[in-house]
Amino acid sequence: TSKDSGKNKFSVFDQEMNRHQLRRMSLEKDLRKALALSEFMVVYQPKWDSLMNVTVGLEALLRWRHPEHGIISPVEFIPIAEETGLIVPITNWMLYVVCSQNMRWHNEGVANVAVSINMSARMFEGGSLYEVVEEALTRSGLAPHFLELEITESIAMNNMEETVAQLTKLRKIGVRVSLDDFGTGFSSLGNLDEIPVNTLKIDQVFIRKSKMHSKKAIISNIIAIASNLNMEVVAEGVETTEQIELLQSLGCRVMQGYYYGRPMPVHELGQWFIENTAS
Ligand code: C2E
Ligand code: MG
Ligand code: MG
Ligand code: MG
Predict the structure, then answer these.
(1) From which residue to which does the signal peptide run (predicted)?
(2) What tens digit of pLDDT does each residue of 231-250 get?
């Protein structure tokens, strides 16, 4: 009867919820040990100047090598890390690892570019971000302008005063700042000039749908805003030559996406630089 099938549907839904909750709980438990067990790995994706044909930056992205589940995407574990507060020790660890790796690339003559790290809102809450960044720079020996912090509009808007205060301190010593996933945060543009930012990163949803006139108009306007506020612009998620041609015609030259390079582990990046550096 219809009553029975309704009941069944509900229990299937229930089981689905349960499975999801169980995985989440078990991941949360494992996440607490992941740092100590060295299960995190950093991969790096190039930011490419499509006019000069050179790498102008790298973005550091986190991967979790889970002993049973294999590689787990940050899309799944970062929210858990944020809710539990584990994101703070993880990001602190990452700051040092990434600065040291970038210093190594500089010393070896492999690369001379800034590497960016994604910041979560939690990093701006304790008030210790400046100290952690400074320590990572000092201990690694990396010059501050070779480190970039990626923040989202929601971080900036949530706690505007505190975020701006901390970013201003960091900008003063030369650390770079970019606004990630720009255009998706419904931020009031009226505040944009008050956030100390070097670069706007156009969110990949606009690039993916850039054939649509409306999305093209948004891309074009983000590029105009960046230019008028003396900021640089990077297009995220670039996958096709059509997208590259369109972005170039709109005045965007720096791009990040699978077309140019996927996020790669350290041992692959050396070779990638050799193959992608004009001699
Ligand atoms: P994000 O910072 O916007 O990073 C860009 C994401 O887009 C990365 O996914 C990257 O692999 C992916 N991507 C790059 N090019 C393309 C492309 O051409 N096509 C498509 N479809 N995707 C592309 P990933 O590594 O899975 O990271 C997802 C998100 O997780 C990041 O978005 C960031 O918000 C967060 N995340 C990653 N690592 C960290 C971290 O260390 N700390 C924090 N707080 N968040 C992180
Ligand atoms: Mg990012
Ligand atoms: Mg992004
Ligand atoms: Mg994103």
Answers:
(1) none
(2) 999 999 999 999 999 999 99
pLDDT one-digit tens code per residue, 77-98: 999 999 999 999 999 999 999 9
Amino acid at 30: D
Report the atom number in ligand 1 closest to the C-alpha of 150.
Answer: 2
Of 41, 78, 147, 210, which is best to mutate to test ligand 1, by the most ligand atoms within 8 angstroms of its C-beta? 78
Residue keyed to tokens 């050396």: 270
What count of other Cβ atoms lies within 10 Å of the Cβ of residue 34? 20
Separation of alpha carbons 69 and 22, rounded Å? 14
Instruction: Evaluate if residue 18 carries a pLDDT over 90.
Output: no
Task: Find out whether 267 and 41 touch, Cβ atoms under 8 Å.
Answer: no
| CB of 239 sitting under 6 A from ligand 1 | yes
Q: What is the Å distance from ligand 4's center to 6 Cα?
A: 38
Q: Ligand 1: does its nearest atom lie under 6 Å from the Cβ of 271?
A: no
Q: Answer positive or negative: Cα dihedral of 15, 19, 25, 26.
A: positive
Q: Per-residue confidence at 6, pLDDT binned at 50, 70, 90? A: low
Binning pLDDT at 50, 70 and 90, where does residue 1 land?
A: very low
